[in-house]
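>> received
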Amino acid sequence: MSGGVLVAGIGNVFLGDDGFGVEVVRALSAHPLPDHVEVVDFGVRGVHLAYQLLDGYDTLVLIDAAARGGTPGTVYLIDAGEAGAGEAGADPPVGGAVLDGHHMSPDAVLALLGTLCAGTGSVPPRRTLVVGCEPASVEEGIGLSAPVAAAVPEAVRTVLELVRDAPRPGAAPDARTTAHTARELRRTP
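>> returned
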């Protein structure tokens, strides 16, 4: 989908709150979305996400658990293009992406994408945003904790607002789109 928006739910549903992105994408399926927006559950298939991004999306919205030290259930909107915005404060992989298809963090996916774009002449998304949620537990187990499950509707509203304001392919972004990346959302009531 050249020039569109890709909303990517990522995470492992067998590790408790790490399944947040997958659950938000499932909840998004109940909402009508603009034609230029594609929503995909990538789960733990980070390599597939990197290859799909070669199709030329303008904006990538990653949905994932994001341990940033807040209260479990806190929803964050992070502009991955800003310095220091990596997942959970992690540094990008040294020496390029580590090719482990089942354990690729968003940082590793973006590093792999950079390598793939350099090799193919493709262009990475102009903007990458992360809608993250502070996990309570990422231990083995199926199902979200109560505070993270309660945050799913807020994350859905955030994504819907982002894609509503995202420019259509070929259009320039406006000030509303830029303003959304500057805020941090608080825990869902």
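>> The longest helix spans residues 146-165.
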